[in-house]
Amino acid sequence: MTTAESATTLDGTAFLFPGQGSQTVGMGRAFYDDWPETRAAFDHLDDALEIDLPGLCFDGTAEAIQRPSNTQPLLLATGIAVYEGVTAQFGVEPAAVAGHSLGHFTALAAAGAIEPATTAALTHRRGECMERAAAADGPGTMVAVLLADPDAVAEVCATREDVGVALYNAPKQTVISGTTEGVAAVRERLEEQTTARFRELDVGAAFHSPVMASAVDCVETAMADVELCEAELPVVSDVTGECYTDPAVAQRDLTAQITSPVDWVAVIETLLAQGIERFVAFPPAGVLAGLVERIAPEAECWALETPADAREVFA
């Protein structure tokens, strides 16, 4: 949501919001302590939920904030609260926004397509849907595949119905997700056919995979209770790479992404084609900033972790 009516649009600049897997205890705390606008926005979102957002975010355990029904509203609240702080402190807004997985919700809230408190409640329900799916059909696992051609990875995944590519994070950096058996089988074939390296991810479930299929109806039901409107800023979909403001696109893609891969490479390529030259990753920012640097090493990329970072970027 663009809070400053006279905000200056930063031509050539996109704001990026992270998804699950990037969360850390204490994320956003420096902004919460220093900026009253961020603190007010965060506390407002806390009032909309039955969970203790400040307690979990600033003093919780790594295990607690990894639970999807906690992780998702925590990341949403952190991103939106810092965004509102940036717009209030510096009177600026981006030329476009995008988010990685859960970050797509944050991007839409920042763009004014959905009210932040509503979004926080929706992401909490979305996390609960995913937890139930993981309990019923998983939890499954996710493994990063490094130094392998993404098409080769997708081709091997296509030989099974219980595993797929979950994330196209960067050139030759994909993540596969599915049942434990399915992921192990795909990994074995890739080890035989490629020189790929692998890294198991410490996540709570097999997100963006067939394991999440039973969550789709649950999320659709939650989405039916939410009013989406035309975005005030261009949003780039992490499902298709499409640049849009139409709420029908958001409705479609926020449901589709439950079992579909996140194509972060397509997101950054679309933004570059739209004339974006500077990317600002919102906290927790390190993961997204690193991916942007791999996809577009020639672009300017900033990671906001403290108010001092923001002053360097916007003042």
UniProtKB/TrEMBL annotation:
Keywords: Acyltransferase, Transferase. Residues 16-311 form the Malonyl-CoA:ACP transacylase (MAT) domain. It catalyses: holo-[ACP] + malonyl-CoA = malonyl-[ACP] + CoA. Signal peptide: none annotated. GO terms for biological process: fatty acid biosynthetic process. The keyword Cytoplasm does not apply. One of its GO terms (cellular component) is cytosol. It is an enzyme of class 2 (transferase). InterPro entries: Ac_transferase_dom_sf (IPR001227), Acyl_transferase_dom (IPR014043), Acyl_Trfase/lysoPLipase (IPR016035), Mal-CoA-ACP_Trans/PKS_FabD (IPR050858), Malonyl_CoA-ACP_transAc (IPR024925), Malonyl_transacylase_ACP-bd (IPR016036). GO terms for molecular function: [acyl-carrier-protein] S-malonyltransferase activity. Belongs to the FabD family. This is [acyl-carrier-protein] S-malonyltransferase. It comes from Natrinema limicola JCM 13563.
